[in-house]
Write a structure and sequence with these properties.
Elements (H helix, E strand, L loop, with lengths): L14 H26 L5 H12 L18 H10 L4 H10 L7 H8 L2 H9 L3 H13 L2 H13 L6 H10 L4 H18 L2 H8 L3 H4 L8 H4 L3 H14 L3 H8 L20 H5 L6 H10 L7 E2 L4 E2 L2 E2 L19 E4 L2 E4 H9 L7 H10 L24 E2 L11
Helix pairs in contact: 1-6, 2-3, 4-6, 7-8, 8-10, 9-14, 9-15, 14-15
Amino acid sequence: MRLAWDGGPRGLPSLPLAAVLTAAAAASLYSCLRVIEAVLTGYYAFDWENFIQAAARLGQGTLYEVDYPYAFRWSPVAAWVLGLVTLMPVWAWQALHVAVLTLLRSWWLVVACLVCYPLWFDIQTGNIMIFVAVTAVWAARGNGPAAALFLALTLLVPRPLMLPLAAWLLWHRPGWRLPFAALFAVHAVAVVASGYAADWLAALISVESELTNDFNFGPSALIGVAWIPIGAALAVWLTWRGRLGLASLAACPYWLPYYFLMLLLEFPSTLSDRAGGWRHSGITATRSASELSQIEGSASMAATGTIAGRLRDAPSATSPAATASLGRTGTSRTEGRVVPTLLASIRNQRSHRSESMTKEIATIAAVTARAVPNWRHCRRKANHNRPTPGVTFVSSTQAHEAG
């Protein structure tokens, strides 16, 4: 029985699912256009203004005093760094949000981000989430500098949604554990020296005000603090399963729009560098060889039999009726020389015409060779009294007629 939500023809989504996706895309595009208009008209960049105030309050002793709309929960060391960042104009900072997308190395991910409301919400407010997300993507791909930067951001800008990837990096890459411990110690000393250690810890645990935020799109907007233990348990399970993007959201008590940028970790292209390692394992070469071997009129390969439980060529000489044996390198071993099977088959294709049977038989006879033992360590003796199926050349021209 076919359900309404099952896939449509040729792998396309069903009509109800397509309608939901289209509605979501239309709503996101509409929100993007509204935000773009606000950015172009110089709308108030909420987080950017907070950064400027944090840098100014650092030396005044009021860094963590909440004075709406000002609130700051990041490390006091981060406030010092923001003092350098905010020297640039806000429009340049917002332009960097778009420029950093090129580091994703995937045109369709770039396009998806550009029509995604979370990105433009990040641009409008002047936050740093797109930089965190792109760094997270490269860290998950195995890039060393990106991993170091992400772990540093975990200390400077501690958000619960960064903990799953940080834990995953330290779990799967033990080499980062000692450097991270050293970085943690240096950062702790700097925080204590700033005099804001107690105030910062108090600010970190005060999350109840964000649960009622108008821009909280998470489950906590409905069930409040009850989501925190549920999300924490779910984040642990998702991290163990390797679903780092979903784990990042689950770990966060509240979901602001730009937090959804961490879902970039869920796209397969974020693992392209890991997949790139497959190209060095011989899979591509094997596939190429198999594709080349399917050329019409080329040598046909039959089963080679089993030797010690493995598919191999005959380990000993066969009777003269055998035309050739296929070596491990994919070439035909002939008298004193090695002739590539593919080249030999292509040359013979030219003679596969209905009026050239004599020439074809002569060509086949010319490449007749005796088999060379490929596996001398095998316990089986040279007792093969039948030809071993290997690379043979088609002697009938009927299969090679035009059409």
